[in-house]
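Entry type: protein chain
Record version: 2
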Amino acid sequence: MRMVRVRFAPSPTGYLHVGNARTALFNWLFARHHQGVFVLRIEDTDVERSEARHEAQLIEDLRWFGLDWDEGPDVGGAFGPYRQSERQAIYARYAVQLIDAGRAYYCFCSPEQLEAERQAALAAGQQPKYSGRCRTRPREEAARKVAEGQPASLRLKIAPGDLAWNDLVHGWVSFSSDVIGDFILLRSDGHPAYNYAVVIDDHLMQISHVIRGDDHISNTPRQLALYAALGWQPPQFAHLSTILGPDRARLSKRHGATSLQNFRDLGVLPEALRNYVALLGWSSPEENREIFTSAELIQQFSLERVSKSPAVFDNAKLYWMNRYYLKQTPTSRLIELSIPFLVRAGYLAEPAKVQGLEPWLERVLNAVLKNLDTLSQLPEATRLIFHYDAAEIVRHEATRPVAEDKGSRAVLEAFIPKVMELGDLTYQRFREIAKQVERETGKKGHDLFHPIRVALTGAVSGPELEKLIPIFEAGAKLHLVPRVKSCAERLREFAEAAHLAVAPRPA
């Protein structure tokens, strides 16, 4: 068996879709499992839509996703260039070879003629294909027209017969040449068509296995015809099933996040997304196991365990997996990942100015982490820490009853002066004061602690007060988080907004 060499060949025309990311991942796992070579090739022959910024973005996204490559536009390699736009001379050379061998010919049909043929075929209930009207034109005449500057594309002469292959996912697949027609190799502007460039590149880069989405199955017979015309041995093909949304329709933006950038912006960890995507259409030999390191995925991956059935993308399952990985993430990295979300929410200063906050931020994350699916939920989960508006609390439907209920007001009128006298509040002192208030008011349990929670946090539920009280007190002393108020400040503002009978804090 020759060395395994696989490639991922995206077009730099937009953000990297999760379906393409799975293709990249499966190629990477296959290469690493077989100690082979993983190639990144940029298919940028779509001049109008391809942009350098998109190429830079997809490279950044792939690296964020945890993939690396042995050859590519940014790392070089023995079979470059790795951008199709830089391989035009190579495509032109093989075009001449095909013409000289009588396997390809120039086509001078106008777009209007081709469209008329297509419409006629559709009207007759037939699959559209090129009629071959330029196929029998004498080569000398065609060469003269080209020399005169007449626009012409280059087409491959399809030989009659079946074009078949043993797909490593779908099994035996066969197409009749009758339904294919002589397809274009080079467009009239000289740019290569996809099915031409990909065959030239895969052969010259010695690709052994082509692993790609099953939307390319119909391209494979055309590529096999070109391999035969050039006298080359084709690689093995494996076509991956489509990824569907929960409604069983092809995954698209209407299902929510679909690109790596989307998931990155949501605060999904790359290791969580990588683990989840690996399970879309592939199953481990270990039944009922779902959490895998990259090393374990590499060790277990095989095309034999790739399903031909479509995979359904389940956001709930991804978020469950992300929760697991968030809990396993070292605190230092979690803080680093969290800071941009808090900065964007206006809770923190710029990242460069938050040095020294790490111990306090560790407390904050520890308080809310168990309730997070993604880091993008962090601003809302920590809002009660960074935002306190007593007037809003006494008006809000969920918290207004505390400001109006006679029993709740009695608890707070006993509790708030004691905290204001202290200034700084520890959780131990909080418990002692709560016991005093319990004795004074006769309130206990929910009737005691619910009004206190609302007055302190502005919310009817949330992290334990044992965690929040030290966060409020320490945060109020940090000049880099000026929006955090101490317990005494919060309670004084609540007392004023709710018009509680509370003595002012001593000067």
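Comment: The first strand starts at residue 5 and ends at 8.
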